Amino acid sequence: MTVISRDEVQHLAQLSSLQLSDDETTNLQKDIENILNYIQQLDELDTTGVEPTYQVTGLENIWRDDTVVQSSVSRETLLSLAQDKTVDSVKVPKVL
User: Fold this and answer.
1) pLDDT digits (tens, 9 = 90+) for 39-55
2) What does pTM read for this prediction?
3) Pick from 5, 7, 19, 70: CA 20 to 30 A from residue 83's CA?
């Protein structure tokens, strides 16, 4: 059986920026002890031969190759369509 002290609960509350009353500290202490005892039970399970589970959906990313598509439109034509430009680039408003 795992036991957690009041000081440890108060330390966790402080780290979490929580202000707990004495009753809340006592209740949280009991809850944490129950959780730790449950986890300790899980630790005793025989998982021999069970593959680790990293995700449960079975979905995988589908990647595609980046390919350059040649355009029939010239650079000059595209630049001529821009509202604001320099000699070789398009000016856009600041995003910041």
Assistant:
1) 999 888 899 999 888 88
2) 0.51
3) 70
Q: Are 9 and 35 in contact (CB under 8 A)?
A: no
In a domain, 78, yes or no: no
CA distances from residue 66 to 6, 63, 75, 79 in whole angstroms, order as listed: 58, 9, 21, 24
Percent of the chain exceeding pLDDT 70 equals: 100
Cβ(19)–Cβ(13) below 8 Å: yes
On whether residue 60 sits in a domain, the answer given is: no
Give me the DSSP letters along 59-70: ---------PPP
CATH code of the domain in which 21 resides: 1.10.20
Beta partners for residue 90, in sequence order: 85
